[in-house]
Each structure stands twice: as structure tokens, then as C-alpha cells.
Amino acid sequence: MHYFVALLGWSAGVLTLVSALPQVISLLRTKDRRGISSWTYTIWALTSMGWCAWSLHVGAVPSAAVNALCVPILTTVVVLLRPSRTQTLLLLTGPLVCFGLGLLYVPALAAAASVLQVVSTLPSAKLAIQRTTDLSGVSSGTWALMAAASACWIAYDIGIGYALAGAATVLTLVCSIVIAVKARTYQHPTSPAFSTTTELAPAT
User: The pTM is what?
Assistant: First the structure.
């Protein structure tokens, strides 16, 4: 059982690490930014910074390594989406804030990272459920991988006795599934709701 739980943890880490790659590849290939929330990836990058700092403070080296590798991938997405000055400032100061908070009070850093993790998918989920949003730039593969990663994290957290952390990840799982399904449905229309005559508003 111990090895199975460990396997879930490593699977969750790997899936989280590679989940943003389909979106990066899509952006580099098509330059299509429609429907992609830059705030989701900004918050997601800040979340990885927080978990990286927390992991180093508590000695969880594998977790620190995974999150450290996530940061440049997620930051690349934000850069390709042309971040605002606020987002740029947050990304530049994020590491200093995270490590500073960790030095002051490590549990507060874990709490902050957990909150960021929970809310990170909400901007993208909001765009996905809006009927008039053009989702042509959104990679359904990224969100399918994130859904798989979330499912593994939930099982892993329950397996190691962190049921509360697993419960918090349920929102990420639900939002990821919604975004993946809506993005795939938009890119492969099968209903009148996605008729080419539908007026589409630009993504924000």
C-alpha cells in the first residue's frame, strides 16, 4: 500500500509538471491567445513558487524540484500571453515573498500556497462557462492532464492522511474537467450552440 501511495504522489508530480506543456506548444505554434486566462497561469506560477519554497523549508526535495521546474514553464505561458504590469511584478517578486514568508512562518506559506492553488483555475473556468467566449486558443490537453494530476493528488493526500488538502483539490479537479470538455467541444463543435454564426466576444 505504501508503494502505491508513493506512486500516486510521483504520478501527480509528473502530471502537474507536464500539464502546461500542451498550452505552451499550442501558443508557440499558433500564436492564438483567445480564451486563455493569463491570470490562471500567473496564479499557477505563484502557487508553484510557494510550494517550492515550502518544500525547501521542510526538506521535501522532490516536491521542491517538481515545483521549481513548473515555474519557468508556467511563466513562459504568461509571457506568451503578454502579461500586464501587475502580473509581471507579481512574478518577479513572488520568489522573494515566498521565501521571506517561509522564513517568518512556514505554515502560513503552506496556507497561502493552498489558497492560490484552489483559486488558480477559477479565471479559466469563468471564461470556459461563458457562452460568448472564444476558446480556440485553449489547449484541452493541458486541462485534461491537470484533471488527471488533481485526481492523483486527491488520492495521494488521502493516502498520507491529508484529507483536507485532498478536499481542497476537488475544486481544481472539477474546474479542470469543465475547461477541458468545453475547450474540446468548442474546437470540435457538435451542437448548434457552437454555430459559426454565433457572435464571439474577445477573451479578457
Answer: 0.85
55-68 as b/e, with b when 16 or more CB fall inside 10 Å?
Answer: bbbeeeeebbebbb
42-52 per-position pLDDT tens digit: 999 999 999 89
Q: What is the chain's alpha carbon radius of gyration, rounded to the nearest angstrom?
A: 17
User: Measured between alpha carbons, how far apart are the two ends of the chain, in Å?
Assistant: 46
* Secondary structure (DSSP) of 74-133: HHHHHHHT---HHHHHHHHHHHHHHHHHHHH-HHHHHHHHHHHHHHTTHHHHHHHH-TTB
CA separation for the pair 84, 62 (Å, rounded): 32
Give residue-wise pLDDT tens across range 180-192: 999 988 876 544 4
DSSP assignments along 182-201, one per residue: HHHHHHS--SGGG-TTS--B
Q: Distances in Å between the alpha carbon of 153 and those of 2, 31, 76?
A: 15, 32, 24
Rounded distance between C-alpha atoms, residue 149 and residue 186, angstroms: 23
Distance (Å, rounded) from C-alpha 100 to C-alpha 172? 27
Instruction: For 115-168, write each residue's pLDDT tens digit.
Output: 898 899 999 999 999 988 899 999 999 999 999 999 998 888 888 787 766 777
